Amino acid sequence: MSPQNRPHSSDEALGFLAGLIKQIRLLWRLLNDPRVPAWVKTIPLVALLYLIFPIDLIPDPALGLGQLDDLAIILLGLKLFRDFSPPAVVREHEDEILGKTSLWQVVKDKSGTRQKNQPPYVDAEYKVIDKE
Description:
Oligomer: single chain
Low-confidence stretches: none
Number of strands: 0
Helix content: 40-55%
Shape: elongated
């Protein structure tokens, strides 16, 4: 990559900050979404409790290394939280955060419920038009 085409460090920092803000918004939305199981919502809580707990894998007085294990646990907890959340819910919230709209939306049937593990379907009338 030529020096002229390389992004500036300020552009990289803004990109990182924007990505971080999007991830925080996604985390908050998933925590408040009733479709995410309660046990999955405990993962970030456990990661935060690790910060408060007085016993660390690497003691905090060891400058640098002591804080790295805390950061690693937080990042791992957030990754596990996202990975164990229902993928469709994560995608839906990511699309809303990015401002994308979906052409297709799953709606409930006439009885107001959808069977578990049943794929969504399209229920519509159609008409065959012959051009001749």
